[in-house]
Amino acid sequence: MDHRFSGFSYYAKATSLTPEYYQTLLDHYWRRSGTTLYRPDQLHACCVHYTLRLDSTQFKPTRDQRQTINRFNKLLTGDAYTKEAARLHPRTREQAKKRDSEFDLIERVHEAEYDSLQVPPEPAHVFTVTLEHDDFTEEKYIVYENYQRVVHKEQPADITRRGFQRFLCESPVQRKTITTADGKEQRLGSFHQCYRLDGKLVAIGVLDLLPHCVSAVYFLYHESIHKYAPGKLGAIREIALAREGGYRYWYPGFYIHTCPKMRYKMDYTPQYILDPETLAWDLMDKRVTDLLDKQQYLSLSKEKPASLGDNGSEEAAEKITAGNVLAEEDPMDESDDDDNDTFLFNTGMPGVMSLDEIRSLDQMDHLKLRIDGSGMLFETGDLVAWQRQDVGASGCLKAGIAELVAALGPELLEDLVVDFWNPHL
Fold first, then answer.
1. For FRET with 13, which of 61, 88, 114, 336 sits at 20 to 30 Å CA-CA?
2. What DSSP designation does 50 have?
């Protein structure tokens, strides 16, 4: 496994991850881009990344979101279909009353799909949505090329098939099907949710389906459907998938509060923000957004005791002030040595284990290693130089593995295999 700290993120490469393992990684502030895993350093980054999640069981679409779905459904079916279907397949009075007074999210997102329609008559457009393996196809690449060129304004020379494949078609997350506690089959792994209009692929949602969430990796669409608000339709459909498929949470990707293009993520509620230091989830309410308006780095675990100080506890207020001063000091200013500057334990990156915690970790001598193609696994303690090296000596093998362990946390070590042999890394 290749791993390093660069700029304001810690990186690692992965060849195989179970959905359960990647779920835990997400909840430890990691995300993936292709097969590259990265964990941002929120404390020192100029653009601070926060992990968010939405509880699909509590989601209530806004009026604008409901109208977006209804308008698109009306476009798909057409007036002629609506009139003829009402004559051939009339709703009961109770059904009509319920539809007019209630907005059933699952029902509405599927309402105009061809397989959900009663035919005849035929709708104005045939619309299908399928969950497919995240394989490369030329059909998918055409949508990607159009999206990157038209929406993201990339130069044609910078858009390549290999780039698309590496970014959105190569995932270390394993695919499998499990049976849930209520007896339903549930798909896990990396998939492409493909939207086709009259047989033409017009949008793709790149998704990681995990035990407790639908994680949105990327959403892309063809310019021909831009006027129908495809990004909004895709987000709502992914939330519906989280509810319908039993995943519960929708992870919309990292959120950067100072980036105007990411503010749309706040249109979907209720969302929760992951504390970079305690890894606890807190409701993303107005109090939190107000704090983010005032400060780039936010750990609500520090803000909560601070509020106690405001209520009259001077001792608590003094402790928080001291803690904040220490947190704002940049350990990279202490040394002129480039290696020391990027040594994870010198960065002050929040939420990672300290050197003292690493030194007291019994598992350090028993981490699994793959060092050749025999299929055998070895332990770190088997290495000749292991006992001679120190985890605090930047540049040595033991310190490099210690950085990875610190960034992962003890919960992820049991199933970890550090790969020194795989030629694809």
1. 336
2. B
Is beta strand 368-370 parallel, antiparallel or unpaired with respect to 3-6?
unpaired
Q: Which two tokens stand for residue 396?
A: 């040595």
Please name the residues in contact with 112: beta carbons below 8 A apart, sequence gap of 6 or more. Answer: 72, 73, 74, 76, 77, 123, 127
3-state secondary structure at position 84: helix
Q: Which helix (H) or strand (E) holds 5?
A: strand 3-6
Q: Taking the model in full, what pTM does it have?
A: 0.89
Contacting residues for 49 by C-beta, under 8 A, at least 6 apart: 40, 42, 254, 255, 256
Q: Specify the pairing of strand 249-251 against strand 271-274.
A: unpaired
DSSP, residue by residue, 192-239: EEEEEETTEEEEEEEEEEETTEEEEEEEEE-GGGGGG-HHHHHHHHHH
80 vs 87: CA distance, rounded Å: 11
Decide: residue 272, CB within 10 A, 0-12 exposed, 13-18 middle, 19+ buried.
middle
Residues listed for the chain:
425
Q: Which of 246, 293, 288 is nearest to 269 (CA)?
A: 288
pLDDT at residue 424 in the model:
66
**DSSP one-letter string for 395-422:** TSHHHHHHHHHHHH-GGGSTT-EEESS-
Residue 352 tokens, joined: 């990672």
Please identify every stretch of the chain with a pLDDT value under 70, giving residue numbers as ranges: 1-7, 304-341, 423-425
54 near 248, Cβ under 8 Å? no
Crossing angle between the packed helical segments 230-244 and 63-77, to the nearest 10 degrees: 100
Q: Are strands 36-40 and 378-379 parallel, antiparallel or unpaired?
A: unpaired
- Per the CB < 8 A criterion, the answer to whether 31 and 38 are in contact is yes
Burial (Cβ within 10 Å: 0-12, 13-18, ≥19) of residue 149? middle
Whether the Cβ atoms of residue 380 and residue 366 lie closer than 8 Å to each other: yes
**β strands within 333-390, DSSP E:** 368-370, 378-379
Query: Hey, what's the torsion of the CAs at 417, 420, 424, 425, to 10 degrees?
Result: 80
φ, ψ of residue 13 in degrees (nearest 5): -105, 145
Which amino acid appears at position 100 of this protein? D
Distance of CA 73 to the CA centre of its chain: 28
Task: Round to whole Å and give the CA distance between 401 and 245.
Answer: 38
